[in-house]
Amino acid sequence: MPVSLRRDLVPPEERRLEALDSAINTLDLEAKGLSALYESLKADGGYCFGEAIEILRNCRSRVIVTGIGKSGHVGLKVAATLSSTGTPAHFVHPSEASHGDLGMITRDDAILVFSWSGETVELGNIVSYSRRFAVPLIAVTSNRDSTLAQAAEVVLALPHAKEACPHGLAPTTSTVMQLALGDCIAIALLESKGFTAIDFKALHPGGQLGARLKFVSDLMHKGDRLPLAAADVVMGEAIVVMTEKALGCLGVVDGNGMLKGIITDGDLRRHMGNDLLALRAADIMTPEPKTVAPDLLASAALELINASKITALFVVENGRPVGIIHIHDLLRAGVA
Questions:
Q1: Span of 28-32, 240-244, 271-275, 292-296 with lowest mean pLDDT
Q2: Which terminus of the chain, N or C, has fewer Cβ atoms within 10 Å?
Q3: In terms of DSSP H, where are the helices of 113-264?
Q4: What is the pLDDT of residue 8?
């Protein structure tokens, strides 16, 4: 009886447990691979990794990332991560490079090669080209003695670890380590270049990520839309302003325009009575309200609103209100 038919005779519950055991074993082996990579980087003392970062940081053009097979897929992801975090990068396929795409590589580039064995035949022409034109070459490989490693300025050696594949054939643990090291490179470059959230926003204007990278200043109401009243104004007038602006609150300012408190719908309910309209704004305001700065990420403002169980925040600069942001503004912008 074929193996697949015999497996069909196993009860579904048993197959589910076997699948769970398989997943746990895969994660365990890949976690051990990451631990080995962690220890390897620590043992190196940062020398090789630091040298690689210096080469890539000082690159005057682009980082050319290459690799073939699963290493090539890893290289594609690493190139994309580098490009999106302030290090221009481009993936060049080794086979296409041998048929004209070597022309994409300039003397001002740096080459980052992913190859587990370091003996991948298809990489030969890129390696030779880099040596001929003195293009800096960084090798990410598990074989320090490989042809690739011997040709490279810097070798980032990956430790040997057991693949999660039970046959030891499908790249699994090895590709996880490659991806992790690629992330290490991208983040180290990001930090060394002082790449900020504002820079990140410029490269990610679309989709939910673009929404999350909006700043409070992008979404806040300002100017005539601000619901503000002087501390000594009577509540009869203050409520009119609060109603006209329709943001569910009112900022209370002193004679110098400094924000001193906030009046919310809840404050009005708590002071409801025959004399409410005759009271002064300062009499019922909540002093020292929570505020944010204009350059705060909108996602952080939403987190503060949710944590404080409020609906709006005044935006202040040097103690003066310059805007107000409401939870509805954040949700409409897709901030989550």
A1: 271-275
A2: N
A3: 124-132, 147-151, 173-192, 197-203, 207-212, 216-219, 235-245
A4: 67
Q: Torsion angle, CA of 176/182/183/189, rounded to 10 degrees?
A: 170
Pairing of strands 228-230, 154-157: unpaired
Q: Where are the beta strands (DSSP E) in 18-88?
A: 63-66
**Scanning the structure block, which residue is given the tokens 């090798």?**
139
d(CA 248, CA 241): 11
Calpha distance 283→326 (Å, rounded): 24
Contact (CB, 8 A) for 294 and 322: yes
Q: How confident is the model at residue 206 (pLDDT cuts 50, 70, 90)?
A: low
- What does residue 80 show for φ and ψ, rounded to 5 degrees? -65, -40
| Res. 187: pLDDT tops 70 | yes
Domains of the chain with bracketed CATH? 3-195 (3.40.50.10490), 216-332 (3.10.580.10)
Report strand pairing: 286-287 vs 291-292.
unpaired
**Residue 31 Cα distances to 39, 42, 179, 185, 276, angstroms:** 12, 17, 13, 19, 64
Whole-number pLDDT of residue 334: 81
Of 64, 51, 33, whose CA–CA distance to 155 is shortest? 51
CB 179 within 8 A of CB 82: no
Please tell me the predicted confidence (pLDDT) of residue 72.
96
Phi, psi of 304 (to 5 degrees): -65, -40
| Mean pLDDT (whole number) for 207-214 | 64
- Give dist(CA 86, CA 36) in Å, integer: 29
pLDDT of residue 228: 95
